[in-house]
Amino acid sequence: MVFVVALGSFTFGFNNSVIGSVLGLKSFFDYFDIDQNGGGRADSIIGATSGLFAGGGALGSLALAPLANRAGRIRAIQVTCIICIIAGIIQAASVHIIMFLIGRFLSGLGVGLMVTLVPIYQSEISPAESRGKMVGSHGTLIVTGYAFAAWTGFGCFYSPNPEFQWRFELSAQVIAPCLLLVGSLWLPESPRWLVEQNRHTEALEILSSFHSSDYQDEVGREDKAQLELSQIRAQLVADREIAQSAGRWALVTKPSYRKRLIAGCITQFLSQSTGVLVINNYQVMLYNSLGLYESLPLLLYAAYLTWAAGMNYISALIIDRVGRVRLMTIGLLGGAAAVICEAAMVAKFSGTSNKVGNGFGVAFLFLFVTFYGVCLDATTWVYCAEIFPTHTRSRGMGISIFTQFCTTLVFTQAAPMAFNTIGWRYYLVFIIIPVLGAVVMFFTFPETKGLSLEDISMVFGDEQIGMEVTPEPADRPEKLSVCDKESV
């Protein structure tokens, strides 16, 4: 289930990364009569392709909460798949640059919903002891989508039909959401969402099915499911009491919720402040500045993202042992160190034919994505998806991802002009912010490794629910035994 829904993560990665390969195809610019060396107009259109995508993503992340809370996680996934399919068709069929940009905005809207929704669903159906690995598949499949887009672009470069080169790559955006749309028909609804809707019997059945491989006898499986259901219901009772007293602005007015929101937004802000999407989206152009042309930049781009996918897989294996906060701190500092080296290579060797210097420039990009893939990519999604309580998870996650897209919008929109005017100095932004952020994160962010979603509430200062919970029948929601419940 976790990996089927991760097709949505793949969709985000592919749709996001596809523009990096498309912008490396001369045939794309020729079709829309854009002079790549034309300065202002070309830079504006290149910036708009990333900017509109990020703007749509920001809107989608905010729209997620009302959709997922009312329709449920599965229905929301299905609606999102349809949006992504329509967006891919519009881009592949574009006959004017405005049509293409509209498609990019819709694609951003769809993946903004998708990238927020997938880790929420994964976190709500995963056991505490392996939730890092399960939700970590979100980051792994995102980068796998990046890699597939890059290899598709590399293959399309050799097509004798110039128009096919970029149209086929853009049309491939619809494959993953089509598969997910079909696969969603067999996915169970989130039991935590079902409990929130007072559909306890359905939630119990799904929880019981989750433990089918853990217990040989049906009694043991039912007892475990009943215990987990009672814990979820107990936490929901406390959450509702808080929501009623604090109102709709609880995320801002309640200190423990506000702490979560700040942690989620800072995590996503710092993730993008490493410059990861600037490096990704404009990587082919960066290779051009290092004196590499034709198919070689596309090949290096594909190899870079394939390496990143492997690093994400390593992250999924170690995240439940090392811990979220420690991994993210290492990633921020290591990534900043790699960017320092990359900036030095660009400053010294950009525009020259020095193969050694340019080779080191490529190597430091791979070093950067090693730190980002192992320590940051999957980990940021895991952390943000698990820190919010059920009744605010979609809203809190949506605001956190909104921060990510806004940060991406600022950095990617400014990148073309910044690289043309101040050159390597633009990298200083991606050095200073992560270093300062790593210090703040290490000393102030609570660790969530190994805790259930209900127990995480305690480390953020909420009422202590889930320590001792007496199982009750699924059809008797009014009788909940909540022990050790303290007022914040």
From TrEMBL:
It holds the Pfam family Sugar_tr. It comes from Penicillium camemberti (strain FM 013). This is Sugar/inositol transporter. Residues 1-449 form the Major facilitator superfamily (MFS) profile domain. Belongs to the major facilitator superfamily. Sugar transporter (TC 2.A.1.1) family. NCBIfam families: SP. It is found in: Membrane. The keyword Transport applies.
